[in-house]
Amino acid sequence: MTDNRVEEKVALPTEESRNQSRRAFLKGTAAVAGGVLFTKAASADYDPAKAVEPYKGKEELTEVLQDGPWRKRLGFGVRKYPYGVPTPEVSYIQRRTLEWLTPDSMASITMTPLQHLHGIITPNGLHFERFHGGAPEISAKDHRLVIHGLVERPLIFTVDDLKRFPSISRIHFIECPANGAMEWKGVQLNSVQWTHGMMSCLEYTGVRLSDLLKEAGVKLDKARWVIPEGADASGMSRSIPMEIAMDDCFVAYAQNGEPLRREQGYPIRLVVPGCEANMWVKYLRRIKVTDVPLQHREETSKYTELMPDGTAQRFSWYMEPNSVITYPSPDFRMQGPGKYYVRGLAWSGRGKVAHVDVSFDGGRNWHEARFTSPVLDKAWTRFEIEWDWDGSEAFLMSRVTDETGYVQPPMPQMRSVEGTNNVYHRTAMVTWRVHAWNSKNGGLIENVQY
Amino acid sequence: MFNTKKTLVAAAVAATFAAGSALAMSSNSGENTTAASEKINGKWAANYKEIIKAHDGKYLDREVMDKILGDDVNSLQAKLDPNNPYSFEVDDAIDGGPHGNAQCKVPKAFVEVWESAEKNMKADYVAKGFGTPIAESALKVWDINVDGDGNGFPKVDKPMTVEKGGTVFVQFCGMCHGEFGEGAKGYLPLAVDEDLVTVDFTDPAPMKTIGNYWPYATTIFDYNRRAMPFWSPNTPAIGDAGYYGITAYLIQANAIPLDDEGTELEDDDLATPQVIMKANKYMQNQGNFFCDHRPITHNKRCMKDCPDYLVGDGAGDIHNYRRARTLPDGTLQYNVNERLHEAAPGVGHKGF
What we know:
The complex is a heterodimer of chains A (about 450) and B (about 350). Chain A is mostly beta strands and about 450 residues long. In chain A, about 10% of the residues lie in helices and about 30% in strands. Chain A is built from 8 helices and 25 strands. Chain A has helices spanning about 15-20, 25, 50, 160-165, 190-195, 210-215, 240-250, 410-420, and strands at about 5-10, 35-40, 110, 130, 145-150, 155-160, 170-175, 200-210, 225-230, 240, 250-255, 260, 270, 285-290, 305, 310-315, 320-325, 340-345, 355-360, 365-370, 370, 380-390, 395-400, 430-435, 445-450. Chain A has a 5-stranded mixed beta sheet. In chain A, strands 7, 8, 11, 12 and 13 form a 5-stranded antiparallel beta sheet that branches. Chain A is globular. Among the domains of chain B are: about 5-120, no CATH class; about 160-290, Cytochrome c-like domain (Cytochrome Bc1 Complex, Chain D, domain 2, Orthogonal Bundle), CATH 1.10.760.10. Helix content of chain B is about 30%, strand content about 5%. Chain B contains 12 helices and 5 strands. Chain B has a two-stranded antiparallel sheet with strand order 1-2. Chain B is globular, with a radius of gyration of 26 Å. Chains A and B meet through helix 2, strand 5, strand 6, helix 4 and helix 6 of A and helix 3, helix 6, strand 3, helix 9 and strand 4 of B. Strand 16 (about 310-315) of chain A pairs parallel with strand 4 of chain B, so a sheet runs across the interface.
C-alpha cells in the first residue's frame, strides 16, 4: 500500500506446519502446505545517512541520563515466586466478565484481553472461561475416562494410562460459538475483549481420539456418533459425528506445556479442532459411541441458530473464518498522524488462513497484510500491515480468506440472511472508526457497525 | 430471505434421493472417474471431488462452488437435499423421519475431513493394552444419556402424577424458573409462548422455551436429571420418578399435545417414559430445525473499488454506521481501569 518496496513472499515450511498439514494429499509433495510467510524487501542498498532521514530536524535530548534505584541495589532472589506471576504493573491485563450477562458466576463466561496479547499463544492464566456448573476441583488420581457403547471392549483409563499412549501437540484456537454474540443487533461495547474475547489459542498435548476409539475396538460399521461427557456438575455433553471424531480430535492433558488448568478441564478435556468450544468437553469422564445423536440441551435449546423466519440451524460444528484488528482498536488511542503497524488476528475452523486484507475506507479498497507468525491449521495467525495515517477519519476493517477459498463477509450481508436473533456464529467483519485527529475526540478509536 | 423448512422439505422430498447411505464412508471409488457431464439429481456435478482437487482443495471458493452447484450456489433450499455435496442434511431414511432422532453430517464436499477420517479409520491398529476392561453394567450410574429416540430411559416402579411432579418442580425449580416456568431472577423461562418469527432486525429477540423451541421432549428429562437443580444436580432427593414428574409437568405447562386430537396431560396422569415419548412426536417446532447450512455467503475476494453491497452499510455509504449507546452525559462508553476493577459491570467512561 503506502510502502512502495517490491515485496517478495517466501514460504518456509516449519516442522510444526508440516505435521499439521492435512492438505498435502490435495497439493502433492512439492507443495508448500502452510509455511511461515516472511516478507523480504528487494529494495536499494542500505545507506546509513538515508536511513536516519526521518529524524532530520528533530530536537535532540541533552539531559544526562541518571541511573534508576534498581541499578543501585539488588533485585529479588530466585524462588520468590516458585510459580511466576506477571509483573504487577500489567495487572490490568485480565480476563473480564460483564456481570449483567449472566445471573451467577458458576454458569458464566470471562473474556480474554485480545487487545493486550502478542503473537498467537494465549497464556494459561488469560484463557477465557466458560462454565456451565462451576469449575470442579478434581484430583487426577480419582479421575477416570470410560469408552463404551458400540465398541468391542469397553475400557476404563486413568490419567496416567492416557499419558502412556503416543502423544501429539497441536496449536489450535478455541472459540465459544457465542463469541461476538452481543454485537448482532448493533454495537454494544468498545473493546476487542468484548467483541472477540470468548476465544484463546494454545498448544494442547494429548492422545488422539482415533487411537483411543480403536483401542476399544470401535465398531465403525454401525457407529456414527461419539458422545463425550464431563464429570462436573453440568455433565456437559455433545454429539460429535464420527467423521470429525476420527479426523483430528484428541484428549488433552496439557496446555502450553503444563497440566490443564481447572478452568480448562483438569485433568483431561476433549479437543475438537476448529469446532465450537462447547464440543471440547472439559473434565472428560465418558465417551459413548452410538448410532444416533443425543439431542442434548446444549445442541437443541442452546447452540442452535434462530433465523428471522423462525427456523433454526442445528449441529453447527465448524467455526467460520474470522479476523479482527487488535491494534489499533478501541482500547488504544491514536498518537497523531504518522506511521502505524496495524496488527490483528485471523483464524479459520476449516483450516489455515490464506490471506488477510485490511481496508481503511470501510470496505471499498483492500490491501493484503503479511503474516508475522507461523500459519497453522485451525490456529490464530497474526497479521500486520503498514499504514501511514494522514489524520483524517478512517474506517478500519480486516477480512480473512482461508485455504478453502471462503471470504469473510461484511456485517450487513450476514445480517440480511441470518437476521439478528441468531446468538451464535457472528463471524462477519467489525469496523473500527478512527476519529479525525483535528476533531473533538481526535484519535479516538470507536467500535461502529454498519 | 428463505422459506420455512415446512415448505422446503416438500420440495426436497419431491426430489429423487440417490440410492445408498449419505454416510457411507467408502462408496465413492467411482466418482473420480465420472464424466463432468454427469449430475447428481440432475443438478450438481457428480465429479465434485475432481473439481475441488483441481482447485487446490478450495471447496468453498466461489469459482469452485459455481462449477459444482451452478445456479444453486446461493440456494439454501438446495442444501436441504442430502445429496447436495454441500448439504449437512442426512437422508430421512437414516434419521427416522420428521419426528425421529434427526442426524446431520459433514458435507461430502468437505473432502479433506472425509479423507482424513477415512485414513484414520482404515489404518491398522493393535491395542496398546494400557486400559482396563469394564462391564457395561458397571456404568449404570454414569450412563445417564437419554437420546432423541428415548433410548436410555430408566425404569420407574412407582411413577408420580403430573400434579405431584408440579409440586416437585415448585419445590426444587420454582425459585429460579417461576412456579409455572415463567422465569425468575434472570434465569430462563421454560414455558413462555412467543412467536419465533421476527419482521425487523430491531425487534426484540423472541424468548425460546420448551414449548415454542425445543425439538425433543426427551431432552427435558435428560437435561434435568443431568444438570438440575443447578446447585445439586442429579439429586436422589428428586430421583428418577421425580425427574419424570418434573418432565411431565413441563410438558403440561407448555401445552404440548400427546396425540393428533391435541389431548394434553391431566393432573392425575402418571409421569412415565411413555408419556414423554408421546409428547416427543408433537413438539411443535421440531420440523423447523434443519442442519447447518453455512457458509451463507460466497463472496469473491475483491481488492479495489468493491461493489456497493460489500461496502459500508451494504449500499456503499461508509458514514451510515451505528454506535454504542452513550452515557447520560452523551459521552461514549469505554473501558477504564477505575471501572474495570470494580465488582460492577466492566464498562464505564472517563469523559472522552
